[in-house]
Amino acid sequence: MGQGKSKPPPPMKLPPVPKDSPLGFMLAEWKQYPGTRDKDKAKMIHYCVEVWGGKEISGNVFWPVFGSSEDWVRQKLNLWVNTKIPFSQEESDYASIWVETPGVFLFNLKEKPDSREDKKRGKREEEVPLVPPPYIPPQAPPLPDNENAQEQAETPPRGPMTRQRARQQNLYPLRGDLRLG
Predict the structure, then answer these.
(1) Cα(14)–Cα(152) distance, rounded to whole angstroms?
(2) Domain of 55: which CATH number?
(3) Is residue 110 part of a domain?
(4) I want to staple 63 with a disulfide (CB 3.0 to 4.6 A). Which of 52, 86, 99, 103 is the partner?
(5) How open is the CA angle 69-73-78, to the nearest 5 degrees?
């Protein structure tokens, strides 16, 4: 009576998780997420798909079966799990993983072994000067000749009188330009 070894519980049959879903991404990068060190991937699938999946977590907001990439939906899930009665610490810990996002991912770049073409390209790149060409300022536009200026003064301007034309014709002289008789 009770002396023998008890049978382990039967393993949970979990549905396949699409790799392009938020849950699939989380499972693929499990070690990168904070708080997953002592957590089990199978339990995360169980909570996400069976316990929370399709449940209304807020007014007209339902938790998607394979998770959400929307931060506000993740926060609603965490709030919903933490206010559920009866409260489950384990469930709350798994829900908090959704709120915490992993840090920046850095991917190693693999360099190809040098080939003859790469060496030729490298030599060509080394030959290119790294100094930019010298700056040559644009030339100033040519000044009008005195003859052209007189011709323009004699020809009446077309269109309405603008401030610029009035200044050119000196219709409204500035105070310094006034000459008292």
Answers:
(1) 90
(2) 1.10.150
(3) no
(4) 52
(5) 110
Instruction: Give the DSSP letter string of 22-87.
Output: HHHHHHHTGGGSTT-TT--HHHHHIIIIIISTT-EEETTEE--TT----HHHHHHHHHHHHH-SS-
pLDDT tens track, the chain, 181 positions: 556 566 655 566 777 888 888 888 888 888 888 888 888 889 989 998 889 989 898 888 999 999 888 889 999 999 999 998 899 999 999 999 888 876 555 566 666 665 565 555 555 555 655 676 777 888 887 776 666 556 655 666 677 777 777 777 665 556 655 555 4
Q: What is the pTM of this model?
A: 0.51
Q: In whole angstroms, give the CA distance from residue 181 to residue 178.
A: 9
Tokens 């009770």 locate to 2
Residues 74/136, Cβ–Cβ less than 8 Å = no
78 inside domain: yes
Q: Is residue 63 part of a domain?
A: yes
SS3 for 168?
helix
Is residue 32 domain-resident?
yes
Residue type, 147: E
Backbone angles phi, psi at 109, to 5 degrees: -95, 130
- Domain total in the chain: 1
Q: What domain range is 29 assigned to?
A: 22-99
